[in-house]
Amino acid sequence: MTTAKTRIRIGSAPDSWGVWFPDDPRQVPWRRFLDEVAGAGYRWIELGPYGYLPTDPARLTEETAVRELRVSAGTVFTGLHHGPAVWEKTWAHVSDVAALAQAVGARHLVVIPSFWRDDKTGAILEDSTLTAAQWRDLARQTERLAREVRDHYGLRVVVHPHADTHIDSEENVARFLHATDSDLVSLCLDTGHYAYCGGDSVKLIETYGERIGYLHLKQVDPEVLAQVRSAGTPFGPAVAQGVMCEPPHGVPALEPVLAAAQSLDVELFAIVEQDMYPCDPDKPLPIAERTRAFLRSCGA
Predict the structure, then answer these.
(1) Domain 5-297 coded CATH 3.20.20.150
(2) Residue ranges per structural domain of the chain
(3) Model confidence over 64-74: pLDDT tens digits?
(4) pTM for this entry
């Protein structure tokens, strides 16, 4: 009989290797990422930024299969609070990622809201607070996206609350959940981002368990977090300052998070993501190995 614990599938992602962009000279080459993530003991990965890994399904399938890796999800950034006016541009990008994810056997599409300030420069791109009309557009367009992704590609949309976006705090996450159809829209709970924005992951899982469709496992350094929040530092520079840290040295504690997720008794991916762009290319692998060992000690 399958137990709850065995229904948590642990993976990692290009993000844990310092990869934020399709092509950047400061990032590790994609073959090295695949070699090292497999060598560290992970069997599931995400696509990362579209274009980092091969976008030809046959080639990507071959490259992952030879390393005994499988793909859990693709990722897209969207500005759906802007309403129907951005639909065509959004769908053009989403359909590329979703088609690749479907072709290589993934079942999820992680949707991240667009940033209200530039994650490198800190330049204000728009108001950090949505109007009532923008909240309605965000909810309706996310439902539309989830429906289209499901109907065309058979993928489940999981929306990722994220620092420096409009879906960030406990209040805004709850508002988003209450505004969207639970049959269409689930959450990708990123434990690090939620803590970064003041949220309690265990409480969220216990309160909205039926909406948790996917996990990103991440921790923040509370001392660095206090500094960057006090200074109003944008997310990108905060990462460069080490706000995201190696488990189990930060918050939230991952053992209670995994226990709460296991109590849901549903299949969940739990993908390790430690933001550290940019980083020395030799830094990620030892961290990934230690993190995998730590998660095994937590029963995952």
Answers:
(1) yes
(2) 5-297
(3) 999 999 999 99
(4) 0.96
